[in-house]
Amino acid sequence: MEIETGIQSFAKEEAHKTANCCVVVMMSHGEPEHIFGRDGQRVNIPKIIGMFNNKNCPALREKPKLFFFQACRGKTVDKGTAGQVVPDSGSLLPSNFLRNAIGQDEPDVTFDQPTATDMLIFYPTQLGNVSFRNASCGSWFTQALTKVFMARAKGFTIMSMMGEVNRLVSENTASTTDPAFHGGKQASECIDRLRKELYFFPGITK
């Protein structure tokens, strides 16, 4: 209830009327369509996203709304599939920067619009799968997100950066003493409802 009340309060803030963008980040344990509070109670992710739609949050209509949910989305461990190793070709970031990561995730307009436009919803893994983390450095997804944004946010679109994030996450492999998780793979996922390209610093790119 504290989580829902806090996010609802944020969605109603007057500051959104003059803001250009909104970002919501939630990090915890989870399961399909839910993220856990510290008491182990489930919070419905679609409900959280719905608080910011065009009906419930008119101050953010036509403005980008980004959601990052770092949590497991199920219990399935993706062990990947064998394939040919393709060398990196000029990427800004090394493809093996997560190679030593180990561990597992513990558990106002004048025309009508669709209700849920101008949103990007990011998940660290696909529906039904676990999300991995490093005990010292944090989750694979958050590590990749931080590194890519620090290197590229000045002049790249959000979607081009997230493609790089997904590449880095997907190239990592879990190394752990638990055979159920050892060799685990992960691919981040994005639901794209934007209607325009999004740059964090649009004035610099023009």
From TrEMBL:
One BP annotation, GO: proteolysis
Signal peptide per UniProt: none
Domain called Caspase family p20: residue spans: 1-76
Keyword Hydrolase attributed: yes
Domain (Caspase family p10): residue spans on this chain: 109-202
Organism: Branchiostoma lanceolatum (Common lancelet)
Gene that this polypeptide is encoded by: CASP2
Keyword Transport: no
Keywords tagged on the record: Apoptosis, Hydrolase, Protease, Thiol protease, Zymogen
Molecular-function GO terms, alphabetical: cysteine-type endopeptidase activity
Family, as annotated: Belongs to the peptidase C14A family.
Protein name, UniProt field: CASP2 protein
Any Pfam family hit: Peptidase_C14
